[in-house]
Write a structure and sequence with these properties.
It is a single chain. This protein has 364 residues and is of the alpha/beta class. 31% of the residues lie in helices and 16% in strands. The protein has ten helices and nine strands. It has a nine-stranded mixed β-sheet with strand order 1-2-3-5-4-6-7-8-9, sandwiched between helices. The protein is globular. The two termini are 34 Å apart.
Length: 364
């Protein structure tokens, strides 16, 4: 998640009425979900650009509960990673572990909100037509859009929990600093609270440079996707997200490994738009919560995995950071042939007990 400049600025604009939520799409067919859009009027980006209408798409499960004051008190927001969308949280290894009766995020008890962030999924993005003229959004803008979606569109002024994976993990740190009282608990998964530098910056920059170096990209004015650039970007993404022990277990023979990665490459490239991908990976450019970690006071359980190439096990950042956050704990999931590298963040079996404990210690 690299980034282009933008710090969040809330604008005093009248909220748009959201259309009635649609019925669930096939990816969510096993769960009774609803979808809708919130239109944020005159959204001002931190870099100074403004959009008259910024669309934020969302999916919800469960029903909002109101307390004696009429305020929604059971909302949980789940934030996706770079290139993802709210629909990724319907995968069985996530949803089947969390949303059912008696499970940690039982939808009979909680109101689950799955937004598509700016530049992703069904929300406003460069490929809608503006291409490289789309405002250069950053993580602060994305968090501000989430906040306005909640308050203006869904009537949610407080969250029981913010859970975020990868980019969503970093958003959780931003939330904790900028809006320390908005959520009762934070659960960031698979990230570090420092600026993206070192190897993490390098592989992302290689993705970006690979797309821009393809003549077919044509400064963003392509008529067909720049295949060579997307292949470079997809290749780096697959390697960075890989889990060596797990992949060796699943594909121990050469031909099977080749067939898997070639099929995955084909699927990945077919799902990408080059300009959207550039913006997505540029959006972390100015992310750096490190100087202000003391502002994060909400109970937090922060989890990384030992086989994560993007967030290596030997970093000292977690040990140093938890000393500065009064209610934070950190756990590193050990590497096995059943963990999934960076993607362990969505295999709930690895951390479901941690979520249960966090909800208990932050209010039951």
């Amino acid at each position: 998640m690299l980034s282009l400049a933008l710090a969040a600025l809330a604008l005093q604009a009248a909220p748009a009425a959201s259309p009635p939520p649609t019925t669930t799409q096939p990816a969510a067919a096993r769960w009774p979900s609803k979808e809708g859009d919130v239109i944020l009027r005159d959204f001002r980006f931190g870099a100074g650009e403004t959009m008259a209408e910024l669309r934020i798409h969302y999916t919800t499960l469960g029903t909002p509960h109101r307390n004696a004051k009429g305020e929604i008190d059971n909302a949980v927001m789940i934030l996706h990673g770079t290139g993802g969308s709210g629909h990724q949280f319907f995968q069985p290894h996530f949803a089947d572990e969390l949303y059912g009766p008696g499970q940690p995020l039982d939808i009979n008890r909680y109101y689950i909100i799955l937004p598509d962030n700016i530049g992703h999924g069904g929300s406003s993005k460069p490929s809608d037509g503006l291409r490289m003229r789309f405002p250069q959004y950053d993580y602060d803008d994305m968090v501000e859009a989430q906040r306005r979606m909640l308050v203006e569109g869904l009537g949610v002024k407080h969250l029981r929990l913010i859970f975020g994976t990868s980019m969503g993990c970093m958003h959780a740190f931003v939330w904790g600093e900028v809006h320390p009282d908005f959520a009762s608990a934070l659960m960031p998964m698979a990230c570090e609270p420092v600026q993206i530098a070192g190897m993490n910056r390098m592989w992302r920059q290689l993705m970006i440079d690979g797309i821009k170096a393809d003549p077919a990209w044509n400064n963003g004015n392509y008529t067909t996707q720049p295949a060579a650039g997307l292949r470079t970007a997809a290749s780096l993404s697959i390697v960075a997200g890989g889990a060596p022990l797990n992949l060796q277990k699943l594909y121990p023979e050469r031909d099977a490994a080749i067939a898997y990665v070639q099929a995955r490459m084909t699927r990945d490239m077919a799902s990408r738009d080059a300009n959207d991908m550039l913006y997505q990976f540029e959006s972390s450019r100015n992310y750096n919560p490190w100087p202000n970690l003391e502002k994060i006071t909400a109970p937090m359980t922060w989890i990384n995995s030992a086989d994560d190439f993007i967030n290596p096990r030997n970093f000292t950042f977690p040990a140093e950071a938890v000393k500065r956050m009064p209610n934070a704990t950190f756990r590193l999931i050990p590497e096995t042939d059943d963990t999934h590298g960076h993607g362990t963040h969505t295999w709930a079996v690895n951390w479901k007990a941690d979520m249960i404990a966090l909800l208990k210690r932050s209010g039951g």
